[in-house]
Amino acid sequence: MNLTNFRFETDSDGIATLTWDMPERSMNVITPEVMAELDQAIDKVASDEAIKGCVITSGKEAFSGGADLTMLQTLRDLYLGLVKEKGEEVAMQTFFDESRKLSLLYRKLETCGKPFAAAIHGVCLGGAFELALACQYRVVSDDASTRVGLPEVKVGLFPGAGGTQRVARLMQTGDALQMMFKGEQIKALPARNMGLVHAAVPRDQLVQNARDWLKANPQAKAPWDDPKFKLPSNKVYSPAGMQIWPPANAIYRRETNDNYPAARAILSAVYEGLQMPIDLGLRIESRYFAKILRSKEAASMIRSLFVSMQDLNKGARRPADVPPSKLKRVGVVGAGFMGAGIAYVSANAGLEVVLIDRDMEAAEKGKAYSHKLISDQIMKGRAKTADRDALLGRIKASADYADLKGCDLIVEAVFEDPKVKAEVITKVEAVVGPRTIFGSNTSTLPITGLASHSQRPKNFIGIHFFSPVEKMLLVEIIMARKTGKKALAMALDFVRAIRKTPIVVNDTRGFYANRCVGNYIREGHLMLMEGVPPAMIEAAGKQAGMPVGPLSLNDEVAVDLAWKVLKATKAQLGEGSVDPGQEKLLGEMVEKYGRLGRKNGKGFYDYPETGPKRLWPGLAELVSSHIPPEKVDMEELKHRLLVTQALEAARTYEEGVVTDPREADVGSIIGFGFAPYSGGTLSYIDNMGAAAFVKLCETLAKKHGERFKPNRMLKRMAKTGESFYGAAEKKAAA
């Protein structure tokens, strides 16, 4: 055998060990080369009479993250090329054959006549876990880092190498569907209890446990290859089976609003596959997989949530000529909710943190937030007491700005008031060195204006976190007019260190994310003032693919904050810059009724101490007219809620606020939850086509006003047939 990505050894008992250890990679991934070598190893095990069975394990800290999704992108490109060259029929047959190679390889392993055992430590996800499922025995380490799962649905795909068929034959059907719909990573002991793996043992016993099992079970077969095998939930068409499928279909529609073809394909593949022998079930799965792989949803989600995110996380926007930052100590000024969160994620990443506030009581309160968060992790079994002690030991609470000496980076997170921030800038620069980078965490205030108070504008940059900091993945890096490359490099290195995803934007009021999501909230307000029933507004938001409706989202970010932003916008930009309907609504909500949002238990919703939130009945009194529900066009509502965001993204792109479609798309999905199935705001336009999008905008503008009027760039793209990504690729190639 000629192996590069594996090592193959056989012991005196005839048990082979295939160690997956790809050179020059930190994580094993499935590639065409890996598939070819695995095929060789299967042939060797099957043909060598001295070999009784084979253990597959990893030579790295993790087993494998699954398939290299760029391989699937290449497969899709192959299909599109063949359609042009040889026609749809030849292209489809080739595509189907290529797309099921991994499934056939795993089935070959499973039926080669010799047993295989997977010995798993660390993450084993996607196609890698499907490899393990094809093995007759699976043992995992009981280490906290060990996780198994099938997360493909999160990037618009579904388990296409046998996962839908094998999991549904190992577990109760309802549990199997839930597992694949959610795409969760499952810990060692729950995985054993669910029947996904056979044993969980200490790491140092892992491979030996697998060897012992192989020696004791030389004739082992997969359970579904036994003629007496029975499905865990009985046959599909049985009284027990029919208890599963109607509610499963209802749950699918409730959770996805039928926006995710991959989730629908999971349902169909399991439903149809369980009525067939395993080989036919696998073929059914492969047909659905080939269909989903060609879908625009899968292409968009793979591009944005895998390829583009990887590029951004690896520093796609980092200045190449600036050496890596030796970031050790970070100062956080402002120990409120945002500052406390920034301190926590920084300390959790191993950085030393100085947390400053106006007095020690406020600073210690901010540090206590880290204590609460890490204690919650301990309660869930994700951290130990020693981890908490170490983390808190890295945070120094202080009221003395002099303690900021020696910090590599300062992140200011004080109240959103230019005067307050100006005072902080002066105080910080009086004590830190000339090379220290100053980052302002602000959601709306232009960074160039704040930088005017700095003596070192080249070292001044915006670092905009989203709330809650410990949960939200996105960080906007905002370039002021005079921000230098070293400040940008340091900010990006910091964001990478704390395991967030950065996007780099140029300075403007509201930057990128808040401009788009502000439009979403505003459209909900305007719908309400038109007389659209509030429940239908909220339903339209969720049906369009947003995580929550616009009214609910406004409650989360605070209704009084929206009111303050509106008043500030009107003061700076004049009367015509705000919508009078929205102004009336927010003014009455905040000043007349004191409804500030979730934070005071009353906003567009009421938040009782017991029971779920419910829409405030008083909303009806704020509106002069009411549209009967049967006359509401839900499709139009969904279009309005998505188009207003995508159109604003296009405006920011035209203005040069966002300069890379990847950042616009990734930022929109992980920053404010823009319909993930679309691939993001600009992919939403590209997938529709600029001409169709412009036509839709013009239709909405005639009916609902100038805010839907398409910008010049979009009109030009509609005429030329350009797309955002196509233009970006041409620019990169030039």
How would you describe this structure in keywords?
single chain; 2-enoyl-CoA Hydratase, Chain A, domain 1; 8-stranded mixed β-sheet; 6-stranded mixed β-sheet; about 50% helix; globular
Describe this protein's structure.
With 734 residues, the protein is an alpha/beta fold. Among the domains are: 6-294, Alpha-Beta Complex (2-enoyl-CoA Hydratase, Chain A, domain 1); 329-508, NAD(P)-binding Rossmann-like Domain (Rossmann fold, 3-Layer(aba) Sandwich), CATH 3.40.50.720. The chain has 30 helices and 19 strands. The strands form four sheets. The chain has an eight-stranded mixed β-sheet, with helices on both faces. Strands 1-2-3-4-6-9 form a six-stranded mixed β-sheet, sandwiched between helices. Helix 2 (69-86) packs across helix 13 and helix 25 crosses helix 27. The longest helix is centred in the last third of the chain and has 22 residues, at 634-655.
**Rg, alpha carbons:** 28 Å
In one word, what is the shape?
globular
Q: What is the CATH topology assignment of the domain at 6-294?
A: 2-enoyl-CoA Hydratase, Chain A, domain 1
- What is the CATH domain class of the domain at 6-294? Alpha Beta
Q: How helical, in percent, are the residues?
A: 40-55%
- How much beta, percentage-wise? 5-15%
- Any low-confidence stretches, pLDDT <50, length ≥5? none
Number of strands: 19
Task: Give the count of helical stretches.
Answer: 30
